Amino acid sequence: MAFFCNSAGYYPSTGSQSSLSLLAYRVNHDNTSSSYNRMERLGKGLVWNSVSTTNKPIVFGIQAIANNWPAATDNTTADPDSNYELIGPQIFRFEYFYLLKTGAISNLPGGQGLQDVAAIVVTVAAIDPKSRVLITNAQIDTLIGRLKDFDSTQPFYDLTTSWQAALDGTNDMARSAIDGIRIYQRSFYMSPSK
C-alpha cells in the first residue's frame, strides 16, 4: 500500500524539502534481507519540482507512484535511499481494500478517488515471537501462499474467515506455531470532506 501524505519522511540532503512524503507499507519478500517476511514502512520525503536534477519531485497521476518509485509498489525492490524500516516484525501477511460509500468493497478507490471511499480496511496475519522460532522462513512462505488475496466478489469478512480456515487446516507444520498466529482486521474511516 503506497500513498502521498503530509507527514515527515527521510528527505534527500539536497533540494528544497516539500511538506509531502511518499509512505508505503509492505511485507518484504527479499530472502536476502534481514526483514524477510516482515512488515516494513517507507517514509520518503519528496522535494518540490525543479529543485533537484537527481531526486524525483512530487508527481501525481494514476500510475505516478508505480512509475517513479517502484520500491513502494512491490515486495522485493530495494529503495535506492534505503528508506524502508522494519515496523512489524511479527506481521507476515498484509492485505488491504477499500470500503466505498456505496457499501461495495474494492481493490481500487472509486471514480472520484478517495472521495468515494468510506474506509480503508487492513487485514494482517501476525505470529508471536516464540512461535516464529518454531517454523522456518520457507514454511512462512507456504503459509503466505495459503492466505488468499482480496477478492471483491466475496463478503467484507472473507479474508479473516478464509485465512483462519487455512490456518485451522494446516497440519504439515508445528501446531504450536500455527496456534501462535493471529489475524486482525481494522477499518480506518475517512473523515468527511467539508
Which features characterize this protein?
194 residues; alpha+beta; 5 helices
Describe the model.
With 194 residues, this protein is an alpha+beta fold. It has two domains: 2-87, no CATH class; 91-189, no CATH class. Helix content is 18%, strand content 31%. The chain contains five helices and eight strands. It has helices spanning 64-68, 129-132, 137-146, 158-168, 175-178; strands spanning 2-5, 17-27, 39-47, 84-88, 91-100, 105-106, 117-127, 181-189. The chain has a four-stranded antiparallel sheet with strand order 1-2-3-4, with no helix packed on it. It has a four-stranded antiparallel sheet with strand order 6-5-7-8. Strand 5 and strand 6 form a beta hairpin. The longest helix has 11 residues, at 158-168. The radius of gyration is 18 Å and the shape is globular. The two termini are 26 Å apart. 19% of the residues are buried. The mean pLDDT is 87.
- In terms of per-residue confidence, which ranges show pLDDT below 50 for 5 or more consecutive residues? none
Span from first to last CA?
A: 26 Å
Shape: globular
**Residue share in helices?**
10-25%
* Order of SSEs: EEEHEEEEHHHHE
Structural class: alpha+beta
Number of helices: 5
Total number of domains? 2
Average pLDDT, rounded to a whole number, is 87
Beta-strand portion reads 25-35%
Spatial strand sequence of the major β-sheet: 1-2-3-4
